[in-house]
Amino acid sequence: MVVLAGGGSTRFGGVDKALLVLDGVSLIDRVLTATKAAVSTVVVGPERGVCRAVEWAREDPPGGGPVAGIAAGLTIGRAPVVVLVSCDLPWITADEVTRLVDGVGERDGFGLLDTDGREQWLAAAYRRTALVEALKRIGDPQNKSVRRLFLGLDLAWSKPTRAGDDVDSWADLDD
Fold first, then answer.
1. What pLDDT does 58 receive?
2. In 13-118, at which residue ranges do the beta strands (DSSP E only) sit?
């Protein structure tokens, strides 16, 4: 399990998005609760107080973007299927995480579509080998596009679901 939580939260005026609270629980703790069945969990970003034990990693350099975060997160753990989620998925559930893993099948990955039908690459399960190969293809991961990382992978997607909705603005918390 890799949880990306190293972004600058620029659309939130620099407020740490991972620590925003919805219904009394921080966004990062909501994600960590949904992923509690993982054998190992690494959170990529600055260390914070969270609801359960996790390992911590930092992208190189800090603030180097989500692809650099993915590269850092993959250095920890050995599971053949890696669930990759961003910390801003407050509606993801343990059942959805299980569906992600089960949905990989023979493909490189299986992810969630948000309620608007957009592919959420940072709400998906991937074969570790596919992620490692994709990272090799793009070279230095700093500030590389997530879309570019996953280009060419054999991916399948869920039906649109609220679990795939991320929080990109204050208005998203009011939904």
1. 95
2. 21-22, 25-26, 42-44, 55-57, 81-86, 109-113
